[in-house]
Amino acid sequence: MKRFFILLLALATASTVYAQQDKGGITEEMMQQIRTGYSGSAADKAARNALSTTSINVLATNAENLAMIDTHFSHRVRTKGITDQHQSGRCWLFTGLNVLRAKMIDDLALPGMEFSQNYLFFYDQLEKCNLFLQAIIDTRHLPMEDRQVEWLFKNPLNDGGQFTGVSNLIMKYGVVPAEVMPENYQSNNTAQMSNLLKLKLREYGLKLREQRDRRAPIALKTEMLTEIYSILARCLGVPPTEFEWTRKDKDDNPVETKSYTPQSFYAEYFGNIDLENDFVMVMNDPTREYHKVYEIEYDRHVYDGDNWVYLNLPIEEVKALAIASIKDNTAMYFSCDVGKFLDSKRGMLDLRNLDYESLMDVEFPMNKEQRVRTFASGSSHAMTLIAVDLDEEGNARKWMVENSWGPASGWQGNLIMTNEWFEEYMFRVVVDKKYIPEATLKLLEQKPVMLPSWDPMFAPEM
Q1: Alpha carbon 66 to its chain's center
Q2: Is 403 in the active site?
Q3: Which of 78, 176, 384, 392 is the most exposed place for a label (fewest CB within 10 A)?
Q4: DSSP per-residue letters across 295-318
């Protein structure tokens, strides 16, 4: 009998161990096997000692790649000056305005030029607040647990964005020179204002969902936007409706002084450029079928504006379009995963900058498609693509973007990227239609595939 109970106990113990293993826990046997993977060699100890007091990226710096890359470029867009977005997520806005700035400086031989980011940011925030409130009205028949409603309340507002924000806002509100509505502390440091606005929007969203009269929400929304406008005016200033501006020649001598509205200013200097219809956003997204058009729901800045629509192309076709634009002295809106393999001191984006594999004695073999699919990589920052260096056969060796982190950052305010880095971490570029082959333009005639708001490609550029 005693042996029988011992046998039952043994079977129960084995069953418990098996059940624990079956649930996916780390067993003692598994732990013993795991521990054997770390040998504790002299090299392991040296790495551990260094990592206990020093940044991983500092230790992973590849000493064989510290020499500064050649800064000559065979083709470069003519532009002047470097802007600074400070502690804000407005890279998309700086980038779009820098594209226009380069053209205006070159066309008019100006000594310099900068547009007011604060002016358009005011309307960006107001329009995004309206976008959220109207989306809440449109979805108030859905339960709070619905994924779309949940996404809206999680993402009522941000200061990031993408090119359709630039195009819709400028075509609706025009532009003004920087000195007409200059930057201030709140525009340069947006977090606190943004937090207050998001708190207010969530409160408003709940109130709008409680309204049962179909006509009431619109009147209520107008009252809410009036309060939002007041907050924005206190923080950013009141946007001008008229102003005077003196144009100067390349030697800084006055040429003429005129009165403008923001819309008339854009019409006079860029009237032949239709930002909403003359440009195409092309993407290199290896997780989706190429030569297809995609659209992301609610990925816009203006409710009655355009969702983000992009044409997905293989990387070599994207590069060909970018090269054609640069050769014709036309800068482009460009975005990428800027934090990967960045040497901010030299202003270099190079896959050889950091050697994590030697430091950790572990391989990191995922390709671009795998990184995007698993959320390990995605577009995080917009800049202005201004240069390419081509070899004798016309192949790109390196690229350069004008950044918006101030003149002291990177290489003279710019970032230089190797062609290999470009292929792995570049995601989108906005190209004038005149540089796009007819066969590629015809692809835009297809009906876009609609993607949900929470798609990985939605993440706003900061």
Answers
A1: 28
A2: yes
A3: 392
A4: EETT--SSTTS--EEEEE--HHHH
Looking up residue 354, the CATH number of its domain turns out to be: 3.90.70.10
* Contact call for residues 302 and 168 (beta carbons, < 8 A): yes
Choosing from 336, 381, 414, 419, the catalytic residue is: 381
* Domain-embedded: residue 57: no
Beta bridge partners of 333: 384, 430
Mean of pLDDT values over 437-462: 88
What's the pLDDT score for residue 381? 95
Q: Over 60: is that where the pLDDT of 421 sits?
A: yes
Per-residue pLDDT reduced to its tens digit, 100-111: 999 999 999 999
pLDDT given for residue 211 in this prediction: 83
Burial class of residue 161 in the structure, from the number of CB atoms within 10 Å of its CB (0-12 exposed, 13-18 middle, 19+ buried): buried
Range of the domain at 405: 75-458
Catalytic residue among 98, 130, 403, 419: 403
Per-residue buried b or exposed e for 223-260, using 16+ beta carbons within 10 Å of the residue's own CB: ebbeebeebbeebbbebeeebeeebbeeeeeeeeeeeb
In a domain, 228, yes or no: yes
CA distance 377 to 57: 17
Number of domains forming the structure of the chain = 1
Annotated catalytic residue, options 91, 129, 235, 336: 91
Alpha-carbon gap, residue 105 to 386, rounded angstroms: 14
Q: Are 115 and 101 in contact (CB under 8 A)?
A: yes
Active site residue 75: no
Q: Is 381 a catalytic residue?
A: yes
